[in-house]
């Protein structure tokens, strides 16, 4: 027992923080590789369609984690789904466009716009929604719908945002080509993963293969490593921007959280329904932003660092929101329990008074 205790603690810690630790360690080691021993391999993989294959695998495994039976249950709350999609594809881009007037380099603007145009996350938002007591079926449906819509909406949003920006960028966005790429690398493997979910999971259990969520964590870290390898020199030159970059990530995601709470209040979404809007509407997927940055904006290394930093920042901030929502839910349940107990005691007191009166009136 003395050995299993620490192992369980370590396993729990790794499940909670392993992804963030992995991202930070891989990024730091790649930037510190002055001899570029690992960087050369990363660049070779990048030029030989490594990111494309990894992204397709990520969405395939993500499809395996989505239960089709739960999706039909999520259709019940169309108001929450609409609120989340408004937050993802309308409020986030407009908020990013507003923040673009803040003095910053074109690379940071590109990174901000990349994050703003992304659909929601594939797993963390659903997990946080469930942990906060929200409807995971609604969260799953928001994941599917937003990532499917991203095939058309994300390229159009990027084109709009880059065209409206006050900063000058040299990137040329081929919208039809990007749409085709997203359809091939996102929608197709996601659909195939959902279709083959049961037989693939059974096979993975037989051969004792890591679960899809664990594999995805590793693959996301790998795709970030490929991006850092390709933009290493640019990133090193822009490390002095890190304080501004982190501040921008906090302000951007903080605005989305405020918008999420406001939308749930406006739509009169009660506890249990609002959580999916707050978490799914505010979170942004990382693999897709890294894919587009490496393929379309490789000259802007700051954009890649912002995408990664924002992902870490929004996980930390949403962890705090999760604690607040859980505490509020616990306080509400305790308050209801105390109210019910008080009502029960009043009823018992009234019953006792009536019994005494009846006994006094009896001969």
UniProtKB/TrEMBL annotation:
Chain intervals with Basic residues compositional bias: 354-363
UniProt-annotated stretches for the region Disordered: 336-363
TM ranges: 78-102, 108-127, 139-158, 178-196, 217-235, 241-264
Alphabetized UniProt keyword annotations: Membrane, Transmembrane, Transmembrane helix
Biased composition (Basic and acidic residues): 341-353
PANTHER family in alphabetical order: SODIUM_METABOLITE COTRANSPORTER BASS4, CHLOROPLASTIC-RELATED (PTHR18640:SF10), SOLUTE CARRIER FAMILY 10 MEMBER 7 (PTHR18640)
Record protein name field: Sodium/bile acid cotransporter 7
Record organism: Desulfosoma caldarium
